[in-house]
Hints:
Elements: E1 4-8, H1 13-25, E2 30-35, E3 55-59, H2 65-74, E4 79-82, H3 89-94, H4 97-119, E5 128-134, H5 159-178, E6 182-187, E7 189-191, H6 200-210, E8 214-217, E9 223-228, H7 229-242, E10 248-251, E11 256-258, H8 259-276, H9 279-283, E12 299-302, H10 317-323, H11 331-344, H12 346-349
Parallel strand pairs: 1-2, 1-4, 2-3, 4-5, 5-6, 6-10, 7-9, 8-12
Antiparallel strand pairs: 9-11
Amino acid sequence: MTRSLLVTGAAGFIGANFVHYWRARHPEDTVVAYDALTYAGNRANLAALEGRPGFHFIHADICDYARVLSTLREHAVDCIVHFAAESHVDRSITGPDAFIDTNIVGTHTLLKAAREVWLGGPTVMPHRFHHVSTDEVYGSLAADAPGFHEAQQYQPNSPYSASKAASDHLVRAYHHTYGLQVTTSNCSNNYGPWHFPEKLIPLCLTNILRGKDLPVYGNGSNIRDWLYVEDHCRGIECVLEAGVIGESYNIGGNNEWNNLAIVELLCDEMDARFRRDPALAESFPDAAGTSRGSARELIRFVEDRAGHDWRYAIDAGRVSRELGYAPRETFETGIRRTIDWYLANENWWRPLLVV
């Protein structure tokens, strides 16, 4: 059975990776990439797909009800995969309004349009609304606490996570109230290609290559579970193909690291690359990891983020048991693939840097 997918936030980090993954795995399906192209949305992420049969790009806002409605009808969309979100916690602290608009109002706009198209006629169209959420809705974990599970109480601690929690509840409500066929996935921290350079791993990689400071919040002890982005895409595929309607699935990497250890690992990996390949020093003359010493010398501890959650961890047992999902990349292999990509794609990341 072929599908027509509307992928929101398709020019962002995870959305773009998902579009590439889905087109490679399901070339018979139509993919409609929908993105407002705000600061973290980059149409260049999808350039390799432009003009190909079965791929369409629409530059529009998910809060535009008329445009969403016409897109669903024009392309006979039967599956929405909803990535579009404001997602940077620091930005949500300094400017929460955009997070309320996109993450709550935008999600509700999509749900209203989907209900109108799929449930508003004389017969119910086969459909799926898959909502991509975050582990941050669950709050913060103690050091000895088990990972977040699907029945975990929501305790969001930032405007970002609160807005995502609200969107999760709206998706659930549209299933229980109107019968919309929904699924939700809550993922841990992603990393990999096309990751906007404001986030920890790409920020460190691009700063090392430019000889810039590597800022670490507090003492660097905050812990996150890290998931290679292609493994996340694979997990969503499992949910779309075999997930139970109305249910949520936690997708994690089984891979906890504190922030300082992550930064030190990146420094050591980059140092090793420069030692093995002298040509890198010519390509990136400002980089640490050359004869001037270790990239670790760039690490700078900065004032901690307000309300900084200490630990996130995902219990991915359900998606593993019920859907047969497991990450394919170890952190070591995923980091190597990520470093390879950033070294090979300076033309992509350098224009995105503020300084």
